[in-house]
What does this fold into?
Amino acid sequence: MTVAKQVWERFTEVSRAAKASTERRLSGYNVHVGQQFVLECLWQEDGLTPSELSRRIGVEAATLTRALSRMEAARLVHREPDPRDRRRIRTWLTDTGRELREPITREMADLQAEAVALLSPEEARQLVELLGRMGRSLRGESAT
It folds into this structure.
């Protein structure tokens, strides 16, 4: 097995474990994996349009629309036409969505700490650098 294949398999394994751990931690709050990113954006700036949210999160508009529909059904957000431009829709947190800020922020911080618990601070810094380089390579960016 090549080193590249070993790296890819380990990367995939960690990615799956991170998703499963995130799902376990968020499920008690009626939040699904990925929806925490929408909540984080709205906690910073409530009333964003779907295009603003999808750009900030880095997902396709259709993916975001499905997430917003689920979040609206769970009463985490609500969508309304922009009063100045009725063609635009704005997404707003509900009281429930706002109340989740502290517990979800805490859950995610705990999960992040757990993920690097077996690494030294230097190893964690190196991993950040290495993963950054992997990301640049996958995006087709130059090594510099």
